[in-house]
Amino acid sequence: xxxxxxxxxxxxxxxxxxxxxxxxxxxxxxxxxxxxxxxxxxxxxxxxxxxxxxxxxxxxxxxxxxxxxxxxxxxxxxxxxxxxxxxxxxxxxxxxxxxxxxxxxxxxxxxxxxxxxxxxxxxxxxxxxxxxxxxxxxxxxxxxxxxxxxxxxxxxxxxxxxxxxxxxxxxxxxxxxxxxxxxxxxxxxxxxxxxxxxxxxxxxxxxxxxxxxxxxxxxxxxxxxxxxxxxxxxxxxxxxxxxxxxxxxxxxxxxxxxxxxxxxxxxxxxxxxxxxxxxxxxxxxxxxxxxxxxxxxxxxxxxxxxxxxxx
Length: 311
Ligand SMILES: Cc1cc2nc3c(=O)[nH]c(=O)nc-3n(C[C@H](O)[C@H](O)[C@H](O)COP(=O)(O)OP(=O)(O)OC[C@H]3O[C@@H](n4cnc5c(N)ncnc54)[C@H](O)[C@@H]3O)c2cc1C
Ligand code: FES
Description:
This protein has helices at about 5-15, 100-110, 145-155, 175-185, 205-210, 225-240, 270-275; strands spanning about 25-40, 45-50, 60-65, 75-80, 85, 90-100, 115-120, 135-140, 160-165, 190-195, 200, 220-225, 245, 265, 290, 300. The protein is an alpha/beta fold. A hairpin with a 2-residue loop joins strand 1 and strand 2 (about 45-50).
């Protein structure tokens, strides 16, 4: 079965990488900060306890974190869910984040017991039912949602290969914990660093070139990391007729499809598909040129975006 057939079948099964977003299950709740610790290389691990009214997020979905006033930022900040576990009264959601600006730095200052408003779960996650050996391709902090995916694959008795790349060994963020989590999910870790300080000397796509021929075909790729890496992984998937699903990011305001502030350029084939299904698509989801990262994604099938126009 070709990659296109595979994606068409996946679309038919649940519309991942398709056009129409599934019904939203999100709500806004007050969460309390649990464990919150340094993860190295400027990153932090955060746990938030949410009440049982909050729907269980799927791997690849995200939440909007809104800091309680007084806060230095007005708008919420999007964050990928890195783990979910049951806890007294609800769920504990895990996150791995970099404190890069005013919002995430204020988040980093929160202590156990502080309250954060959480909107979610949002967006479309990784389509875990697409057949093939799962190859998870991570760049830097992108490893976190992919570990969550590896655990979901393990529950489906599917073993993952995780290819983890960074600029140097120090930026293989939270590597020890990631390796332990992956091993308990029955997966295997493969490393690459640009400077060769750990694993293969080269990019994670060089690593993909090296590892892919040794794996049982067909492969299915799920990737999370910087856009330049995702573009290279998408092109690799298209070149090798291998389904590839990429967790994209954009600056976001609402996270729910309303503000139209998180556009990503659709590919020509996606624009054609949209035109064909025009009559069945609610107007909110109908921009012919641009997909909204928050509702059409954040996970996109490689053929659905115009990688020439993604930076
Ligand atoms: C779906 C999704 C999931 C995300 N998951 C994570 C995660 O798991 N961990 C994590 O650390 N971050 C994640 N991010 C990025 C995170 O939301 C931003 O880093 C955060 O909003 C920055 O807010 P700030 O107020 O600290 O910085 P700002 O002052 O708002 O921005 C600081 C700098 O970061 C840039 N920036 C802001 N948002 C983004 C973005 N989305 N992509 C690229 N550059 C950006 C700004 O242009 C600016 O240069 C995710 C973003 C999206 C859209
Ligand atoms: S963030 Fe508002 S439409 Fe996506």
